[in-house]
From TrEMBL:
UniProt KW keywords: Nitrogen fixation
Function: This protein may play a role in the biosynthesis of the prosthetic group of nitrogenase (FeMo cofactor).
The protein's name in its UniProt record: Nitrogenase iron-molybdenum cofactor biosynthesis protein NifN
Domain of life: Bacteria
Annotated metabolic or biological route of this protein: Cofactor biosynthesis; Fe-Mo cofactor biosynthesis
Organism field: Candidatus Sulfurimonas baltica
PANTHER family: LIGHT-INDEPENDENT PROTOCHLOROPHYLLIDE REDUCTASE SUBUNIT B
Membership in a protein family: Belongs to the NifD/NifK/NifE/NifN family.
Residues covered by the Nitrogenase/oxidoreductase component domain: 13-416
GO biological process: protein-containing complex assembly
Annotated InterPro entries: ChlB/BchB/BchZ, Nase/OxRdtase_comp1, Nase_comp1_CS, Nase_Mo-Fe_CF
Gene: nifN
GO molecular function: nitrogenase activity
Length: 419
């Protein structure tokens, strides 16, 4: 029986996912249509996680404007104030629960401003969905509103659509591997160039890097679109509507030996290549050895994961190959992403559910808020997901492909052995 409420939530909101998406577009100003506190919370949240300034503005809806304004005035005033100080290539407009409940016409407001500022809009109420869906909806909106339809394809051009859980370095690594097959590779969005922790100029005024608006408009001739994560599969399908001649390759995860094998096999088949480059073969052998080495620590270990669904699938896949037993996975929102995974118990719940499951387990893999529970029951803890206030360098944590899967296995095994 489902609980009537969440007592200690894992869930993050859709607007936070939308914010992350727009931060992966060069010179973009994310504009949250809602109360000032909503944007302030998200800004502080991601600033602490990434240890970098976060660019976001708000329409600052208050008690008065919430009643008398249909959204047009507050949005136009916010855009006017933004453009007085900076010149964004794109304003990414997304909603919150309050403005969605009001029924504000953000499409109409965007249309009224089309001659003064390029904008992309997306509906992301925080009373439904979560971080993954907010991120995915924003990608879909960008594809629908900005990507120009094309009749032909460029066989040397590829598009990567990552899920929200992939760190900037993971996006970069996947791009590099796709590019090694002879593609000019773009990512939508591209956090590997904006939230990767580089030292830039005027950080925080606008998004400091990522895919440019011009590149987004010209994505329509990409021969290959690769989606990673169940949450963004629909975005790949929407891209194909822009150019039915493109090929869509979808992977629920790019972690663990078998799933990464499928990734390289698909790219080799597309390019008609019979053998991967030597570095790929070498890293595959390292992962095979890592699976053997870590089996002594992970074999039979009972693990509880409390993460977004796509990330839970990736990590569970990797450690199961080394013999771990996935006792329970607690996710914040409903999904079909975990249907293929062998797991004792999959729960849509909160940290109260995590606490119940962890008592009979050995290891918890969760975000910073799982730390108190792990310490309470004296269980091993590996930090992943949003937020992680405990450590720095979150943007450079790599759990993907052969290389990242090795790092993940070693970290988990060393954590267990240190108890």
């Amino acid at each position: 029986m489902n609980k009537p409420l969440q007592t200690n939530p894992i869930k993050l909101s859709q607007p936070m996912g939308a914010l992350l998406c727009f931060l992966g577009i060069k010179n973009c100003m994310p504009l949250m249509h809602g109360a000032q506190g909503c944007a302030s919370f998200s800004k502080v949240f991601f600033t602490r996680h990434f240890s970098d300034p976060i660019a976001v503005q708000t329409t600052a809806v208050n008690d008065i404007t919430a009643v008398i304004d249909g959204g047009d005035y507050s949005i136009s005033e916010a855009v006017k104030n933004i453009t007085k100080k900076v010149k964004p290539d794109l304003v990414g407009l997304f909603t919150t629960g309050m403005t969605e409940t009001k029924g504000d016409d953000i499409k109409g407001a965007t249309f009224l401003l089309k001659d003064t500022q390029l904008m992309s809009y997306v509906h992301t109420p925080d009373f439904e969905g979560g971080l993954e869906s907010g991120f995915a909806k924003s990608i879909e909106a960008i594809i629908e509103q900005l990507v120009e339809p094309k009749d032909e394809i460029d066989m040397q051009k590829a598009l990567l659509i990552p899920n929200v859980n992939l760190t900037p370095i993971e996006v970069e690594k996947i791009k590099e591997e796709i590019s090694s097959f002879g593609f000019e590779t773009f990512a939508l969005p591209d956090l590997s160039e904006s939230l990767d922790g580089h030292l830039g100029v005027k950080q925080g005024a606008l998004s400091s890097g990522g895919i440019s608006v011009e590149e987004i408009k010209n994505l329509g001739d990409s021969a290959l679109v690769i989606t990673v994560g169940d949450s963004v599969c629909k975005a790949g399908e929407k891209f194909r509507d822009k150019n039915p001649k493109s090929t869509h390759l979808h992977f629920n995860t790019l972690s663990g030996l078998l799933h990464v094998d499928k990734f390289y096999k698909a790219l080799m088949d597309f390019k008609h290549i019979s053998k991967p480059k030597p570095s790929v073969v070498r890293w595959r052998k390292r992962l095979q050895d890592a699976l053997l080495d870590t089996h002594f620590a992970l074999g039979g270990t009972d693990v509880v994961l409390a993460l977004e669904a796509d990330q839970a699938l990736s990590i569970a896949t990797t450690i199961k190959e080394a013999g771990a037993n996935i006792k329970a996975i607690v996710i914040p929102t409903k999904t079909t992403a975990l249907d293929e995974l062998d797991c004792e118990n999959i729960i849509v719940g909160d940290f109260e559910d995590v606490e119940k499951e962890l008592q009979e387990a050995d290891l918890l893999i969760s975000n910073f808020h799982g730390e108190r529970i792990a310490h309470k029951y004296k269980k091993a803890l590996v930090l992943r997901g949003y937020p992680n206030y405990e450590t720095v360098g979150n943007q450079l944590v790599n759990d993907t492909l052969y290389e990242g899967s090795c790092y993940m296995l070693f970290e988990v095994a060393n954590t267990i052995n240190s108890l």
